[in-house]
Amino acid sequence: xxDQTPAEPTEEELSEQxxxxxxxxxxxxxxxxxxxxxxxxxxxxxPAVRAKYPNLETDAVTGxxxxxxxxxxxxxxxGKLCFVSLQSGDGERxxxxxxxxxxxxxxxxxxxxxxxxxxxxxxTGEVISSRRGELSVMATDWKIASKAVRPLPNLHSELNEExxxxxxxxxxxxxxxxxANVRSRALAVSSLRTTFANHGxxxxxxxxxxxxxGGASARPFVTHSNAFDxxxxxxxxxxxxxxxxxxxxxxxxxxxxxxxxxxxxxSTHSPEFAMLEAYQAYGDYHQMADLTQEMIQNxxxxxxxxxxxxxxxxxxxxxxxxxxxxxxxxxxxxxSGWSITVDTPLDExxxxxxxxxxxxxxxxxxxxxxxxxxxxxxGGLERPTFVMDFPVDTSPLVRDHRSKTGLVExxxxxxxGFELAxxxxxxxxxxxxxxxxxxxxxxxxxxxxxxxxxDEEFLRALEHGMPPTGGMxxxxxxxxxxxxxxxxxxxxxFPLVK
Length: 498
Hints:
Helix content is about 35%, strand content about 25%. By secondary structure, it is an alpha+beta fold. The radius of gyration is 29 Å and the shape is elongated. The mean pLDDT is about 95.
């Protein structure tokens, strides 16, 4: 009897196994059976059969003849009767039995010669229950659906993280948690779209290739268009185009798509990531905070059936209830014991930062305040918390605060100590917006690679009149981090790796 569940093979053994499998592929092709048929007479699926017969008695027969396919994940050849476990894409499994009495001597011999772990296999036969009570298909015929010429890893041991990330297909084959991550992401994104639809939002798509990068403070990827013979940028944000849509009368608009930022990569940042941005005419940052809380709570419910989610490590996190809203300056002063205001001199802020070993690349008062706030407050924000009212010099696209001089109407949402989303009362005055862009251009001329460029086309749109508007943005990958407790490389199906 042979049971193909070997230990993890060496590179030399992998090469030898591939050579043997390639020879089997050739024999399949030469025999006329084929190693990669274009279609098969499939009548049902493994999950459907398991759902139809959840409690079949031992040794039962159904008379139900099915044709189904799956990947071979276990194989046991025992003389006149062979057993194979087939796995569907969602991880469901069923046993198939290949017997001399049912398929004949020639077919059984071919089975033992040609079938390996990892192959996709089609079987036709009756649904039965084995002597051990296992739901099975007693095959009357079988066929290779796709010959695997490279062996699977040992499915009885954990893949290392490097393999999981670089060869995600193996992760999906071998680990239920990996498949669950894909389903969770799909459920969350579907829930977001449903919430937007319920609020009358329209989904649009805006350019990935842009002649001027804007909408965020970030270093862009630069490319070149041969057709137009011009420098182009992969977008760092869709904001300036979505605002054009609001100017044009699409008063509730959103987009879920990719952003690209030529910056560092770590457990919460990826150079390529999925982003949600939304804008609502006649809204403000308070309304966008309400909407964001509703969206995230709905997404949590879509995944777990509750506002309480269970993370990968088994701990739980509650997204329910009303979320706190705190002032950036007030929370900084409370945590530090200082009395920092928007009028605190730059030199004093620098001294405080230097004493803590905090470095600021392009020093402005607002950047020092934000860095000091992160040092004292950020790490302690476990529960979902909206941090309100930011310095004006760090937020060039945000409306001045209606009652607090030197601040803008902006919030950042923090969950588990990291930033998940941001929201604004949008700056719609084209004159002030031009002044802010000029200030950004000065920073760029001084060497700030993240400063925005002056965008005349966007200013032209604003000059046609943009209504009072609230806006928000949220990383989809980070949303999944918050809902699952995983790092960003686990929430992205195929992350960029070096």
